[in-house]
Write a structure and sequence with these properties.
single chain, 6-stranded antiparallel beta barrel, 7 strands
């Protein structure tokens, strides 16, 4: 077994365990789902399917307490895990996106009171009535 000394650890920031769902953005219509297993200010360890290829750099969308979008580069890859470093560019560091507005209680009540199929205008059909003489 190989011993690890303090000089072997190149991380400058403390890591925190996490289980945050995340998405790796490949393009406008392509994302890879992953999970952030631990995170620090400088990077993270992510879990994803071992057969998934990763680009050298990408944007990572992390769903934690708020939605974080971080520019990242791959440092290492072992099986289902990858170590990534966050970009140190000031423009990219810590970029956050505000979560969508939660509907108010009144909005929810309005939606619950009238199902969508009843709220829509009724379609009028012309019905032909046939008279029968008995």
């Amino acid at each position: 077994m190989v011993s690890v000394t303090a000089s072997d650890n190149r991380r400058h920031a403390r890591r925190f365990p996490a289980q945050h769902p995340a998405q790796i953005l490949l393009g406008p219509d392509a994302m890879i789902p992953c999970t952030v297993k631990d995170i620090s200010t400088g990077g993270a360890r992510i879990a994803l399917k071992p057969q998934m290829d990763l680009p050298e750099t990408f944007e990572l969308f992390i769903a934690a307490h708020d939605l974080q979008v971080r520019r990242a580069r791959v440092c290492w890859r072992r099986g289902a895990f990858a170590g990534i470093a966050f970009s140190s560019d000031d423009a990219d560091a810590g970029m956050s996106v505000e979560a969508p507005r939660t509907p108010s209680f009144e909005d929810c009540l309005d939606q619950a009171a009238m199902p969508a199929h009843l709220a829509a205008k009724p379609m009028r059909k012309s019905l032909k009535l046939w008279q029968t003489n008995i």
